[in-house]
Amino acid sequence: MPSINLKLLQTFLLAAEFGSFRKAAEESNRSPSAVSMQIRDLEEQIGISLFTRTPQRVNLTTEGQALFEEIGRAMADVQSSLDKLTEIAARRKGKIQIACAPTLAASRLGDILSTFKLRYPRSVVEVQETPPQAALVMLQQQEVEFYIGPEVPNLAEFQFESIIDDPLVACIPEELYNGEKRIKLATVAQFPLIMLNRKTAVRGLVDRLTQEEGIELKVQYEVETAQTAVALASSGLGVSIVPGIALGSNVDKRLRIVPIDNPNAHRSVGIITARGYVQQRYAEQLISLIRTNLRGEG
């Protein structure tokens, strides 16, 4: 069957709805003869009669009724999709919605957004602090423009742009520090440990590394954020392992920051976007500023 012109289907829907070629013609600003000709063209293309004609009105055949119901459902789905896109466009207008790893949001995002606001004073940025897996759902549903955070494996529907390499570091209270320039996980395991919980990507990385080395960590405290882990280490409660990007410029003087001595003790941090998603202008400018800021401080 050749491709059917959508205008023929629209004319068919009007004629079926009103039961009249004349009323369909009035609704579509066409002549009754033009409507009749379009319906005939459609019937010839399909190869079946869609209406029975009488002088007073036209009635759908059984086949015409089936087509009317199918097209009606399809058009409702199309309208629903258009309404959703309209809602998304309205939400995006003048506002940027992004997702960000909590660690990065607390340590770096403030300076980035402050600079962005100076450049684009009319912009509005809404930030969702969330771990990577939850951010992927938001990206898929177009609830956010992009995600700033660590790389996630097997990103089939998304693309990841690496910006910096983020090492794992040990935050060691000065009374426990022995002058190490780098420290092995086996050595860290001898101290009281303050770790991020198992919901975090950092904890997952640390657990993989210790398992590979056959090390068992004896965790004294589990917390949700790197900032809390660093604060507890500053109080002398133990050694914390956090991503380097979590440390701001004002590290507590009571702490010694020592890189973990393992070639795999690092992760890529960057921007995740949905494949094929077109960024609005403000979002593109914000992504550019994030690249510059993170690389400059990295």
Q: What structural class is derived from the secondary structure elements?
A: alpha/beta
Determine the mean pLDDT.
88
Radius of gyration: 31 Å
CATH superfamily of the largest domain: Periplasmic binding protein-like II
Report helical residue fraction.
40-55%
**CATH uppermost class of the largest domain:** Alpha Beta
SS summary, helix count:
10
Can you walk through the features of this model?
The protein has 3 domains: 6-90, Arc Repressor Mutant, subunit A; 94-163 and 268-297, 3-Layer(aba) Sandwich (D-Maltodextrin-Binding Protein, domain 2), CATH 3.40.190; 167-266, Periplasmic binding protein-like II (D-Maltodextrin-Binding Protein, domain 2, 3-Layer(aba) Sandwich), CATH 3.40.190. The chain is built from 10 helices and 11 strands. It has helices at residues 6-18, 21-28, 32-46, 62-92, 102-119, 132-140, 185-188, 201-213, 226-234, 281-297; strands at 51-53, 58-60, 95-100, 124-129, 147-150, 158-173, 193-196, 219-223, 239-243, 255-259, 266-274. A hairpin with a 4-residue loop joins strand 1 and strand 2. The longest helix has 31 residues, at 62-92. It is elongated.
